[in-house]
Batch of 4 targets.
Target 1
Amino acid sequence: MSATTTLHSDHSVSVRPALPADEEALGELDRSTWSSLHAVVPRPRPPYDPFFDERHRPEDFLVAEAVTETGSPADPGGKRIAGYIRLVPPTPLACNAHVRQIQGLVVAAWARGAGVGRTLLRAACAEARRQGANRITLRVLGHNTPARALYASEGFAVEGVLSGEFFLHGRYVDDVLMGRLLAP
């Protein structure tokens, strides 16, 4: 990805279901956005595991595509994957089939600050409703202030805190549980 890539001035962002053909691009996006702000696993190192596997299927992901503009005539812009969100049932139990859980939200560095995360979050809520859910939940690290602010601005409330749940980079970090009801 060119360091000069930016969203097109009209901020055209669309969301679609992920396709098996997105695997390479999503894997690269996942690796390029790794950060101690949100990751509880070590930084990925080659050889890389597949992005999709039996627990992470293409149908679990929504992908944001954005129209880009660059400063290079050799790369005049076009649609690029700007982010993804993973939406799954939290358990296989029938008694909570009415719930969907967000288990990952990633936005490319070049697309941050343009509403891609918010667009993905809203699309996940709409998809959860389409699947028959009436509630959506997520977990976020306590020190991830930008993500927590985004979730709160979209109606998610803190429903619990697992204090010191993770030991990351020499310190204990809270795991914050957030959720909201989905309007019909």
Target 2
Amino acid sequence: MTTPTTPHRTERPAALRVAVLVGSTREGRFAPTVTRWIKGHLDQRDDMDVDVVDLAETPLPTVLPAFGQPPAPGTTEALAPVTPRLAAADAFVFITPEYNHSYPASLKNAIDWHNEQWHAKPIGFVSYGAISGGLRAVEHLRVVMAELNATTIRNTVSLHNAWGLFDADGNMTAPASDAAVKTMLDQLAWWALALRDAKAVRPYAA
């Protein structure tokens, strides 16, 4: 007589913590419109929890300590609105414009204040600009984040002539851009789960 077996239950993985890092701090920036759009996509997913880290709202110090030396008094407190949130993230989405063929100094400053917070975590890019769509900013970021042991997602979201892609209410009018976000986030989720599972078995060693 065959004993009936109980179907194996697979528990759903805990939602991924995705930090959206808004790189522009310029007055009159277009970043809030792009950020709202990206956050809308993230909010629709049940496998991701989003935390928007806006560098215009969380300004960081710009004078780094001498190499190998502790930061100046008060620096840890100044970093507190950002550092723990980056450390808690399983993955990142960088939102960046292109300034002078690269990305903003405010974003580089935030990157340079941190190190292990980036290790073995995936990063998806959303860039915007005029005809280039911010692609040169993203290519520069890939090199920098590789040095910090992060994994960058191949498929990006690039908004060419971004100001003409949204209506007066900030709604995206280009279906291809919405499709690009889904592709990027699907890849981000794959890498984030794979790396999170790997680190649970064996801590990452830089």
Target 3
Amino acid sequence: MKLAIIPARGGSKRIPRKNIKSFHGKPMIAYSIEAAYESGCFDKVIVSTDDQEIANVALEHGAEVPFIRPENISDDNATTIDVIHHAIEWYEANGTDVSEVCCLYATAPFVTPEDLALGYEKLCEKDDIQFVFSAATFSFPIQRALKLSLDGRVNMFNPEHAMTRSQDLEEAYHDAGQFYWGKKRAFLSKAPIFAPHSRVVLLPRIRVQDIDTPEDWLFAEALFDLQQTRNS
């Protein structure tokens, strides 16, 4: 069984209830649920949550909620891998064999069915590929990043590149925070995702926005508006 798991705990502090907060007319989590179904990749799309209100919203938008997530993996110290590990083991303990898994974040309104399908295609290209995740380029060369001391003094992280032209520096990439396809054994063994056995689905920066703070939320809304305008 190919399984989409959407982690969505109820304890978000910086943006209260962000997983089900209205984003351009529907709960944020609905975008991930819809993209998962439209991709045609999954036998089941489930939401792993400790919160009954989130569970109800997920059910209203077509996802399954086969269990309420235990408290020990629902606090601030729980990791995404813990949540995925629990869901896989729950299904297998209940007689369903899992093959490939996609962890799809609840706050990913820019995820597309096409990106999810491409991720699955890449995962299946070779036996040694364990994970495929969304990524994007940094907008500025990381080799020229600055840091500030406690008294405000400026230093470079890599002073050897102080005079290097930007076009001569190697391009760098970062996790786009939308989805992580993986083979069951990779998730269960808690193998590292950012490693040579992984591949990426490269996204344009206009479709990448982490949503952790109120400022992030406003920026995501503006990006969404911009895309709607471009597509109209």
Target 4
Amino acid sequence: MTDQHETDRRHEEPTPSIRVVIVDDHQIFRTGLRAELGPQLDVVGEAASVDEAVERIAALAPDVVLLDVHLPGGSGGGGAEVVQRLAADPALRATRFLALSVSDAADDVVSVIRAGARGYLTKAASGSEVTAAAVRVHGGDAVFSPRLAGFVLDAFGAGGGETAAADDELDRLSAREQEVMRMIARGYAYKEVAAELFLSVKTVETHVSKVLRKLQLSNRHELTAWALQRRLL
């Protein structure tokens, strides 16, 4: 009887939270963001400058860093400098950086992504949106606010005006699957794709599953890379 009770209790234990560090030079923003994040995220530390961020992240080795782009200190490189200075630390191989900024300037977006960040949201995002993005980044996806994705695509070679060559793999997809594929690869959420294409979320999920299976890909991050290589975005 006791063994069964202990087994049931173990099954009820919550899934471990994703450990997060918030880096921003405005305390009010850090406090507000912290209060708005979902229960999936466990904020284990905060920092307000480049040097403080490097020290705190190295000490805590969080799963995800919510990183402001414009930070005081260091050599003036802001959030991109934080990512670059920590890139060689083997203890931080699993740490993912998600940029958060009031800026939607192309230079800011591209610089922090080139440094190694896995996503970029503007501070107009809600707490639930930041939470969802952090969970996805932790899982290996790349996440961008849809209107910012074009900057990244241009910077990494998808905006050069080259016409996509005929591709046998692309021919495997129906016209609707190609529409869904392009939106998902650009960073749109399932419900955003559903609203844009007048589909149900369930139908979008089905299309995405078919696309990944036909292209022999594992997730939307691989899908984005696949689409970039073929100048499809």
